[in-house]
Specification:
By secondary structure, the chain is an all-alpha fold. It has nine helices and no strands. The protein folds into two domains: about 90 residues, Rna Polymerase Sigma Factor, Chain: A, CATH 1.10.1740; about 90 residues, Winged helix-like DNA-binding domain superfamily/Winged helix DNA-binding domain (Arc Repressor Mutant, subunit A, Orthogonal Bundle). The chain is globular, with a radius of gyration of 19 Å.
């Protein structure tokens, strides 16, 4: 018996435009968010989202349900394109992640005043700079876990590595990020 995603893929391969539209609607927000987390720029994330969906559509016939679920496959296609984009541009901007966000109180329950908005922007840039200092594999693990909310097993499947390695990368990334941010905070005399 075919799952819902597998049926949609089958319908797309038969030329059903409505099925493709359903797939795009199901995954557009997640793909956009993934692109935005890696680039930190709205326009660039929008372009990447379009490129990812073009790549998904072009390679739809290579999806094999026996090799994993469709969502993981779509995210893997997106991740691979984002990595290609990173290699081409040689910069890896991100908009923040891990437990440091909670410590910096980047979110308010009420609408922030202008002063708080400036503080939030500064804290976000500070954290983004810290993330850029991490090795790409640690940044990627932190983004997928802390920002995308993916489970360890899901990340392991997406990256094609053991679950223990995922946990190790996330732990090392968080520790390195905390050290970097503490050091920079002390250097700049920041209270963030």
């Amino acid at each position: 018996m075919l799952s819902g995603d597998n049926k949609l893929v089958e319908r797309c391969l038969q030329g059903d435009d409505a099925a493709w539209e359903t797939i795009v609607n199901m995954y557009a927000k997640r793909i956009y968010n993934l692109g935005y987390r890696y680039t930190g720029r709205r326009e660039e994330a929008e372009d990447l989202t379009q490129e990812i969906f073009i790549r998904v559509y072009q390679n739809l016939n290579s999806f094999r349900s026996d090799a994993g679920n469709f969502q993981s496959w779509v995210l893997r296609v997106g991740r691979n394109l984002i990595i290609d984009h990173y290699r081409q541009s040689r910069r890896f901007q991100q908009s923040a992640g891990s437990e440091e966000m909670e410590e910096m109180k980047l979110e308010d329950d009420k609408l922030p005043n202008p002063h708080r908005m400036i503080e939030q922007d500064e804290a976000s840039r500070f954290l983004q700079d810290g993330l850029q200092s991490l090795p790409p594999e640690l940044k990627e693990a932190i983004i997928l876990r802390d920002l995308e909310g993916m489970a360890y097993q899901e990340i392991a499947g997406l990256l094609g590595i053991p679950e223990g390695t995922v946990k190790s990368r996330i732990n090392r990334g968080r520790i390195e990020l905390a050290k970097l941010l503490s050091k920079r905070r002390a250097q700049k005399g920041m209270l963030i």
